[in-house]
Amino acid sequence: GGVLTACAGLALLTMLAGSYVSSSNAGLACTTFPACDGGSWTGAFPAQVAQMAHRWIAGAFFVLATVAAYLAVLGTMARVRAATLTAYGLVVLQVLLGMANVARQLPTLLREAHAANACAVFVAFVAALVFAAIDGTVPVRARAVNRARGVLADYYELAKPRIIYLLLITTFAAMAMAARGMPPLTITLWTLLGGALSAASAGAINCVWDRDIDRLMTRTMQRPIPRGAISPRDALIFAGLAQLAGFALLYVLVNPLAAWLSLAGNAYYVVIYTMWLKRVTPLNIVIGGAAGAVPPLVGWAAVTGHLGSPAFALFAVIFLWTPPHFWALSLTTNVDYEKAGIPMLPNVKGIPRTKREIMIYSLVLVGVSLAFFPLHVLGPCYGGCALVLGTIFLWDAWKVSGDPTKRYARVLFKYSLLYLALMCAAMVLDRVVRFPHAL
Fold first, then answer.
1. What angle do CA 374, 369, 319 make, to 5 degrees?
2. Can you tell me the distance from the alpha carbon of 248 to that of 66, in angstroms, rounded to the nearest whole number?
């Protein structure tokens, strides 16, 4: 009922937007599809803005109508299903008529068919809504609906979303640094979406490759593949489609350099780290950490079309941050890694050696991060923040070295996440606030 109500409402809103476009003679304000003339996704003057607003609303309506049709196929009363699928067919026809109107420059027949079909779409969704109210909104195949939701949740988990969030934060930070403020909205949208899809592909391949060891570790045994919720074949299909879509979005809608950098980062993560280093050397995290440091380069390239020293500064911070971050985690999960036979540092060199390495890498991390100020890569705003944040990082690392329990390892692991986010914010703030320093 809720989805059908939203569909009916968006159908009406789309009609109203289309009526405004027609009455204001903005029907041919944009002569290309889907973006406006010159590739704009917002329009450059009022008539184009009205035209593009109509297209954005229509696009959102199409997505929602697709969801409604999918739910109808899974299981609703017969006439609700028939009305919903009829409405969806009319929505598809409406999209085609809209594209034809732009391509043919609004011939009378197509223009009137577009308007009439818009009314038919609205009526069909209202009919589906009425039938749903009469027959009841409880699906006759509720288990199928729940199963579909479970599948979506499994694929979401397969993509390793928590890693994606972190990668997107560093990508956006580099974009804001490059733009000295908010980067263009459309570039931001396509860069983050393309990056998320690419990262989801790499995460899924990692889950396929590591499915044998994931079954052995408490932390990972509930992932979709070890549970049998997703087959390795389906996971690889998902990974291939996500990578293809991510690369295409970046290449076509952002720029080729951003697309190739993203692909190179994924290849490094999958081939160098996952398939090679992870199972053969305790330096897996040290060398493999370069993959997680690539997103800032993608973000900078997305805005500027080239690479710059502030982006490499963020790359260096993430690269040096990765070992103490993951070694702190490995101190709390070393039993799991032992069972799986993964040569993490605590299992190969021992816990005391790991704590010393955490301290050493923390010193290098903070030292390098502070060096960007005197080297004029970043300015005093960043320098002050890096000093405070780095001091706390070193304090937590020192506490780990003297703690016989796992308490401070957990503290360092959690703070390291906050540290990276705040360092990104400090770099962005430093680029936005107009202190004099090298570009």
1. 140
2. 23
Q: Specify the higher pLDDT residue, 404 or 294.
A: 294
Measured on CA atoms in the order 189, 194, 197, 200, is the torsion positive or negative? negative
pLDDT in tens, 207-233: 999 999 999 998 889 999 999 989 999
Tracing tokens 């190179």 back to the chain, one arrives at: 264
300-310 pLDDT per residue, tens: 999 999 998 88
Phi-psi region of 225 (alpha: psi -120 to 50; beta: other; left: phi over 0): alpha
Q: Show Cβ contacts of residue 309 under 8 Å, excluding neighbours closer than 6 positions.
A: 377, 438, 439
Integer CA distances (angstroms), 415 to 160, 279, 360, 394, 423, in order:
20, 27, 17, 11, 12
Cα–Cα distance, 253 to 187 (Å, whole number): 8
DSSP one-letter code for 278: G
What is the model's pLDDT at position 435? 53
Q: Count CB atoms within 10 A of the CB of residue 255.
A: 19
How confident is the prediction for the chain on average, in pLDDT? Answer: 87
How open is the CA angle 34-36-40, to the nearest 5 degrees? 105
Rounded distance between C-alpha atoms, residue 111 and residue 299, angstroms: 42
Q: Are 318 and 207 in contact (CB under 8 A)?
A: no
Give the angle subtended at the CA of 46 by the CAs of 252 and 24, to the nearest 5°: 115
- pLDDT tens digits, one per residue of 316-336: 999 999 999 999 999 998 888
Give which of 267, 322, 257 is closest to 293, Cα–Cα: 322
